[in-house]
Structures are given as structure tokens and as C-alpha cells.
């Protein structure tokens, strides 16, 4: 017996409602943090899809960041990087998070991308602390860090 037109319409409506409601809930405003961190700004990055939360304290040139994204495959990784000197990958200061295969815990490593030929874990060119990662219930990974932005970069490159 074929479903009635009303039943088909109801199922179609229900499907789209669930799809839209789950998409709407996955925005910056729906993000919660285990340590009750608060950030002044958040950007939904829908083409990735990911979320960037950040706060900048101009009095001490400190940038606090939370980046949330899902790995492209199970057991994969996510990364967030900033290049303080150019618009290319070379020079980027990257944080990469993944789940440790032995412990199952999320970890974060730093990479100073100095060339395309050899990308290995390395200290960043500027100070970073409170660097942590967490695995979230939806399968995404979150990277947290605080950066000390050098004064010449914080002022837009002008010497003061």
C-alpha cells in the first residue's frame, strides 16, 4: 500500500524541519565550552564547516582563540593557523588537534610552517600558552590557545 499524499508531505516536512533545526543549532550561538570560556567574537565558517571564537585584549596584545571543526574522516585531524607576515601557508603558525590513538584523548601540537617540503612539529614564532584540545560529543575537535601578539603586529605593523 502506497503512503497517502498527506503522509508523504508530513514525512517531507519533518525531514526538512529536522535538517534545518540541526543546522541552525550548529552556529556560534549554540557552542558551549566545558570550561565556561567566554569569547567576545565568533565567526561561523560554513564552507568548512567550522567555528572560530576569539577575544583580543589590546591592553596586553593577547589573542584568545577557540577553533571547532570536525575531522574530514574518523581518526583525522583539524588545524587552525595564522600567518602574521604573509597571505601564504609558508610562515603560518599552526595548531593541529587530533585524537591520540593510544589514549583516545585529544591533543594539540604546534607547527611553524617554514616551507612546503618539510612540515614537522615545532615551536611557534611567538608565545602561545593554555594550549589544549578537546574531543566533543558530536565528533568535532576544539582547539584552545592564547597568543601573545608582538607589538609591531598588533599595531598593524606600525612602529610606535
UniProtKB/TrEMBL annotation:
Subcellular location(s) per record: Membrane
Span of domain DOMON: 48-160
PROSITE patterns in the cross-refs: DOMON
Keywords recorded for this protein, A-Z: Electron transport, Membrane, Signal, Transport
Signal peptide stretch: 1-25
One GO cellular component term: membrane
Superkingdom of the organism of origin: Eukaryota
Predominant location: membrane
Name the record gives this protein: DOMON domain-containing protein
Organism annotation: Hibiscus trionum (Flower of an hour)
Amino acid at each position: 500500500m502506497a503512503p497517502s499524499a498527506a503522509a508523504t508531505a508530513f514525512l517531507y516536512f519533518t525531514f526538512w524541519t529536522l535538517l534545518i533545526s540541526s543546522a541552525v543549532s550548529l552556529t556560534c550561538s549554540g557552542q558551549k565550552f566545558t570550561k565556561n570560556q567566554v569569547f567576545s567574537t565568533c565567526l561561523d565558517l560554513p564552507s568548512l564547516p567550522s567555528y572560530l571564537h576569539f577575544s583580543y585584549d589590546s591592553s596586553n596584545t593577547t589573542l584568545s582563540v577557540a577553533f571547532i571543526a570536525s575531522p574530514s574522516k574518523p581518526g583525522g585531524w583539524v588545524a587552525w593557523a595564522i600567518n602574521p607576515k604573509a597571505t601564504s601557508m609558508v610562515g603560518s603558525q599552526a595548531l593541529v588537534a587530533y585524537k591520540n590513538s593510544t589514549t583516545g584523548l585529544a591533543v594539540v601540537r604546534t607547527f611553524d610552517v617554514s616551507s612546503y617540503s618539510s612540515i614537522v612539529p615545532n615551536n611557534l614564532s611567538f608565545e602561545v600558552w593554555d594550549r589544549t584540545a578537546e574531543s566533543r560529543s558530536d565528533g568535532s575537535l576544539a582547539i584552545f590557545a592564547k597568543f601573545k601578539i608582538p607589538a609591531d603586529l598588533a599595531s598593524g605593523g606600525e612602529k610606535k
